[in-house]
Structures are given as structure tokens and as C-alpha cells.
Design brief:
The protein is mostly helical. It has two domains: about 80 residues, Orthogonal Bundle (Arc Repressor Mutant, subunit A); about 100 residues, no CATH class. It contains eleven helices and no strands.
Length: about 240
């Protein structure tokens, strides 16, 4: 009977059989790392555990892909490659909606990738065509030299919200919401505290819907703010002319 590799957290230390030479490809290594990331998060597995999943040795992983950082970079690259790059004939606001709304679910399936992407997004090759098209649309819309800044505000905010969702899942937001609801109101509490209670109730009962609602509200608010900024710039330019 074949020996099956142990999984992270099981305490099993399965090893490949001596004398075997598994014929791995870099794609197989990255796929296995993706699956471990989906289940345990980007920081929740080691190269040794990855090797166990593939029934091979850690130095075989290094030979095919590199050290752990190289594997992590490949995982982030693969996840970003799953994100859409909507057609350029969309208006700039609809283009960002078509990019960000589905990307939330794609990135969110692999906890930890969002935080790494927020840090290294501009260095991920798969992100460059998306960035080029997005900034191009913003430039054409009239943002001019502010286009890269507008792009960064939208992408960084969206990705950081996904990273925050990752952290909330690890910490258990439902429990935190229940604790807040049980707290005595502060002295002289007003409408803010009263209004917060039903919102916390919703977070406690249906955190997934609440996260998505907050994400969409944030993106729409940013789009409206950038539209207002663009309109103000046009008005200022007309006045100057």
C-alpha cells in the first residue's frame, strides 16, 4: 500500500520511499502549494510539509522552484493570474468594478495572498497587464499624472480589505461582534452607539454577507470620490482657461 504524505498540523512525518525519484514539475509544486495555502494560509505551511504533500524531499522542491520565498512568490503570481483583466472598452468605473468585485473572491480563497499582494503587487509579473490597462483608462478619463495614484488607492484599499477579512477569519469576527454587543454602552452614549448595535448583530449572524457589503460600499465610495476629484479638476481647468 502506498504511503500517503501527512498534512500540516497532523504531526505525521511521512517520507518518500527510499530509492524513488518522483518526477515533479514546477507547476505541480505550485499547485500543491496553492492547495496548502487555500487550506492553511500562505504562512501556514512549510517546505517540509509541501514536500510531504508531494511525496518527495524538500531539496527536490528547491531544485524545481527554489526556496520557500520563491514558492510563495509563485503562489501569489498564480493567484493574480486568476484575476480578470476586463476589456478596455468599459468605462473606467465599470472596468474597476469588473476587476475588483470578482477578484475579492479569487484572492480571498487563498488567505495571506492579499497581504503579500498589497506589499509586492507592483513586482508581480501577472499584475502588470492589469495595472497597465487600469492606469491607461484612468489617464484617458482625465486623471493625467494622478492616474497611478488613483489606481493605487483603488487596488490597495480593495486588497487590504481582503487581507483584513483573512485576519478576521483567523480571529473569529463573530465572537468579537458578540463581545461588543454585550458591552455596556459608554457614558453619554448617543446615536452612534445605538446605530452600531444592529450592524454588529448583522456581522455576528452573517459575517460573509457583511464583509462583501462593506467591500462593495468601500469600492463605490472610492469611485464616487475619484469621480468628484476628476470633476473638480475639470472645473478648475475650465475656470483657469
Amino acid at each position: 500500500m502506498a504511503t500517503h504524505p501527512g498534512r500540516p498540523g497532523t504531526g505525521k512525518e511521512a517520507r518518500p520511499r527510499r530509492g524513488t525519484k518522483p518526477k515533479l514539475t514546477p507547476a505541480q509544486v505550485v499547485y500543491a502549494a496553492l492547495e496548502l495555502t487555500r487550506e492553511h494560509g500562505l504562512d501556514g505551511w512549510t517546505v517540509r510539509q509541501l514536500a510531504q504533500e508531494l511525496d518527495t524531499w524538500p531539496n527536490t522542491i528547491a531544485h524545481h522552484v527554489g526556496d520557500r520565498e520563491a514558492v510563495v512568490h509563485a503562489v501569489v503570481e498564480r493567484v493574480v493570474a486568476m484575476m480578470p483583466n476586463p476589456p478596455a472598452d468599459l468605462g473606467w468605473q465599470d472596468w474597476f468594478r469588473a476587476l475588483l468585485y470578482p477578484s475579492r473572491g479569487i484572492i480571498g480563497r487563498y488567505p495571506g495572498v492579499a497581504r503579500r499582494l498589497a506589499r509586492d503587487g507592483a513586482t508581480v509579473p501577472a499584475a502588470l497587464p492589469v495595472m497597465d490597462r487600469g492606469i491607461g483608462l484612468l489617464t484617458a478619463a482625465g486623471f493625467g499624472e494622478r492616474a497611478p495614484r488613483a489606481y493605487a488607492v483603488l487596488l490597495n484599499t480593495a486588497v487590504l480589505l481582503v487581507a483584513l477579512d483573512d485576519d478576521r477569519r483567523l480571529l473569529g469576527l463573530g465572537d468579537a461582534a458578540a463581545v461588543l454587543m454585550a458591552m455596556a454602552p459608554p457614558p453619554h452614549a448617543g446615536i452612534g452607539w445605538a446605530t452600531m448595535q444592529p450592524w454588529l448583530q448583522q456581522w455576528s449572524e452573517d459575517p460573509d454577507t457583511s464583509r462583501e457589503t462593506l467591500f462593495r460600499y468601500t469600492v463605490e465610495t472610492l469611485l464616487a470620490g475619484l469621480e468628484a476629484d476628476l470633476a473638480g479638476s475639470r472645473a478648475s481647468g475650465s475656470a483657469d482657461g
